[in-house]
Amino acid sequence: MTANIGQPTKSMKRVAILGVMFLCLPMAMVAQEEEVKKRPNVVRRLLNLIDRMAVSGIDTNYIEIPDQPWTFVLRSNLSQSFINLHSEARDDSPMKMRLRSTTSLTTSVGAWIGYRGYGLGYSVDLSGDKGSNFTTGFSNILDLFTNLSIGAMGARYGVNLRIRSYQVDHSLLAAWEEGGKNPTVPEHSMEIVEPMKVRSVFADAYYMFNGKHFSYAAAYDQSAIQIRSAGSLVAGLMYHYSRVEYDSGENIELLDIMHGVGQMKMWQASLGAGYAYNWVPGKHWLVSVMLLPMITFYNRGKVFYYEYDHPEDPTNKEVHYVDSELTKNKVVPNFDTRLSITYNRAHYYFNAYGTYNSFRYDNNAGGTIRLGDWYAYFSWGLRF
What we know:
The protein is mainly β. Helix content is 14%, strand content 57%.
């Protein structure tokens, strides 16, 4: 066994990045007083534009913009994902099968620093799925980390991009006859020898029709402060892509249950309208709720078929790709819901918010798949 002397590990790199962010905080605070004089023209114009956008079109009787443009945030994240696979038996059999998998609860901690909601952050996982989280105002990195999120918020809009990847190594298997009571079926634990790999991309955009009185940013990045209760009609657009892979010779039993489908790709686009409300129950407090029913107007999938020997033969684990097929799914309803609670002071704040997502696809091989996840953020922010 040989050791890679001098080669930094992934953990060391993550700690180093987090350390650099903490070291940047005092430098940013010292430099703030001289930043106007020292900014290059392009940077100065960009920051001035962000300043103007922050106050454009708002009623200051309802929304307050902090005097301090910079924010340093310590944050913690909780998240969990699930995947359900449904399949019908072959040869006109009335049997149906369901595989239900849920990841362990993932926790992470990190830091973020930015200017009026645009910035850079990094966090590391403490338990659950292995990986790290990277957040930035501008990025096109897709496969660098386990979790990546990008966001931008203004007086009337919110845009978010989140990338999530995880693995599943166990599942609960249930089988029942058609017409039976699915929820009452006893489930049996099934080991997935070679972990099932899932990667998802979530993107959404919102437009607030009452941006004069209602602030989306006050609830979700605290670059504004809601000082009086207000609501707004909301229009939203959501995009989702997922790739699920379990095409390993170790998973022949799973391949057999899913009729030879060993990999799936899925795309969805949804459009909807709903309502968001910022409630100010008392000085310094804000509770925000958004409910957005949606219609999935674009719903496509692609399944990949594999050949293999009978699963009862443990000696032969060869799997060969055969063909792929593009599937078109029906227009289906969907929804997006969010909840945020914030405690604000002049120079700091506490915030907690969460959301839940669920997506369903059908394939032409007699099966369906449902993917979903929830996550919650807890943060303490310092304005300067």
